Amino acid sequence: MGIEDLARWVSASVFNLEASSRASEAVSFFIIDSIEIFALLIMITLIMGAVRYVVPLEKMRDFLVAKNWYGFDLFLASSFGAVTPFCSCSSIPLFIGFLGAGVPLGVTFAFLITSPLINEVAVALMVGLFGWKVTAMYVVSGLVIGVAGGYILGRMRMERYVESFLQGKRNGGRVPEARAKVFSREAGRWILREAWGVIKQVTPYLLIGVAVGAAIHGYLPKGLLERYVGQGNLFAVPLAVVAGVPFYSGAHSVIPIIQPLVEKGVPLGTALAFMMAVVGLSFPEMMILMKVMKWPLLVSFFGITAVGMVIIGYVLNLIVV
Amino acid sequence: MKIKILGMGCAGCARFEANTRLALGELGIAEDVEKVTDLSDVMEYGVLSLPALVVDEKVLSFGQVLSASEVKKIISKELD
Q1: What is the pLDDT of residues A30-56, one digit of tens each?
Q2: Which chain B residues are Cβ-neighbours of A115 within 8 angstroms?
């Protein structure tokens, strides 16, 4: 009701499209999804802005240094990663900052793995396009990969592969960030600016993603992809992950494309594995991280994360069928 | 006053640089902005995320792509 009628009206009268024609389907899809997504996006960026205001990165870092808790810190780091935005520009300062302050390597990795995979934009999109259940599964998957990956990498004791020239830097707490009280006007301004910043940055790519998704929804014949990456193909999941690595894109661009693909017959696990690889593993990130990690560590990081994604892909395929 | 921008090449850092230059122009500050992109130099300031604004070796903002007017506000406050 409501939005769907509006969308149908627009396709019919504004674009003069025959109802239930492919073009009309595509346009309706685009309009419906865009509106839903924006509503969710605004809500969730505001909430996340508030969370980040109250728990800025420095606090998270200090928290992770102090606690150990037999591995609970891995879960904590993963959760923190889920809450923070991800700019590839920030992954290194963060990596070094955390290590420099004394956060263990494995824990830092847990954060680094989860950060690009789970962010508020991804969650907003997934809820809008896939519903809460799938979103919850995705978030849990991301956390699991983060914790497991962080744990394994920590156990491998690869501290020596971090560039030595950076080991000596003390980076803990040098930048005091004065935060006003939570319910003050200054806090409100900060949160609005943060939320608006995310929305402004994400919107163009988002719209492109939804447009591509709309085209897929309207025009791609059902079952075409299923032949190649459907349940029958055992290698679909690893292939999906490998295919995702060369592409880099934020979750906001990929998710709107994934949903129609799933509709058209691509198994959910395979599709999500592809998405995780696109979002979580990328050449640009690798280039940047190469400056602070020697390649054995970098390769281990990528390899373990990729394997985690493949496993999750299989698991989701099994669960969701 | 010595003004530096810490950034390592992502789109947000480029936007921040543009906004900062705009702000300085509007404030009538003639000094050029120094762009710090070398990793070890950036890490000297101990920031956790980029881009960052550094004035006279003091980090005034980091992790946010401030608009030109926000940069103006911050720098004006510093001038007083």
Answers
A1: 888 788 888 888 888 888 888 877 877
A2: none
Mutation target among B49, B67, B70, B77 for the A interface, most CBs of A within 10 A: B49
Mutate to test the interface with A, among B48, B66, B67, B70 (most CBs of A within 10 A): B48
Other CB atoms within 10 Å distance of the CB of residue A167: 12
Q: Are A96 and A169 in contact (CB under 8 A)?
A: yes
Query: DSSP H helical segments within B1-80, as ranges?
Result: 11-27, 39-43, 68-79
Indicate the angle between helix axes A268-280 and A105-117, nearest 10 degrees. Answer: 120
Q: Tens of pLDDT along A301-319?
A: 899 999 999 998 888 888 8
Nearby residues of A250 by Cβ (< 8 Å), 6 or more positions away: A121, A202, A205, A279
On whether ipTM exceeds 0.85, the answer is: no
B46 interaction partners in chain A (CB closer than 8 Å): 97, 100, 169-175
B40 and chain A: CB distance < 8 Å anywhere? yes
pTM to 2 decimals? 0.76
Angle at A248 between CA A152 and CA A163, to 5 degrees: 45
